Amino acid sequence: MRFELLLGDITRQTTDAIVNAANSSLLGGGGVDGAIHRAAGPELLEQCRELRREQLPDGLPVGQAVATTAGRLACRWVIHTVGPNRHAGQTDPAQLRDCFTQSLKLADQLGAKSVAFPAIGGGVYGWTPQGVAQAARQALSQVSTEVELVRLVLFSQAMLGAFAEAFPDAPGAAP
């Protein structure tokens, strides 16, 4: 599996799947979640509502992952995962690693050969860039998968720097 780092907009990725740093309701929100819902259009929201009605009446638990199709996005699937919220006392890094692990495993089950990840937990959920980057590195390097490319699409220079330290051999990691 190859890793790439990119400072950019995850909604513009042409990978087979993109990962959404969702909230547990799956009904959209701010940050990455809101951007993905806006770019995907109403079809994504309807699929998420259906998941809530049929499979997840209490919402998606922290660290788990579920997939939908991608609406108007260029990818085929959106994999939704809920990161732990440090501000709400969810400080176990294992939960953060689970987000990356479960999302990659689900991408593999879907048959995706490429997947784009955001910095799960690195926005309003309060994880430091270094904490997110280390969790991503630990989790993604442990999964046996047929996925060929993992692109880490980062929203700030600080986040890119932290991921470059954690993934020093990845294209895009050089200063």
**Spatial order of the strands forming the largest sheet:** 1-6-5-2-4-3
Low-confidence stretches: none
Q: What is the string of helix and strand elements? A: EEHHEEHEHEH
CATH architecture: 3-Layer(aba) Sandwich
Annotate the secondary structure layout.
Elements: E1 2-7, E2 17-22, H1 31-40, H2 42-54, E3 65-69, E4 77-82, H3 93-110, E5 114-117, H4 129-140, E6 149-154, H5 157-166
Parallel strand pairs: 1-6, 2-4, 2-5, 5-6
Antiparallel strand pairs: 3-4
Structural notes for this entry:
The protein has 175 residues and is an alpha/beta fold. It has a single domain, classed as Leucine Aminopeptidase, subunit E, domain 1. Helix content is 36%, strand content 19%. It has helices at residues 31-40, 42-54, 93-110, 129-140, 157-166, and strands at residues 2-7, 17-22, 65-69, 77-82, 114-117, 149-154. Strands 1-6-5-2-4-3 form a six-stranded mixed sheet, with helices on both faces. Strand 3 and strand 4 form a beta hairpin. Helix 3 (93-110) packs across helix 4 (129-140) and helix 4 packs parallel to helix 5 (157-166). The two termini are 22 Å apart. The model has no long low-confidence stretch (mean pLDDT 95).
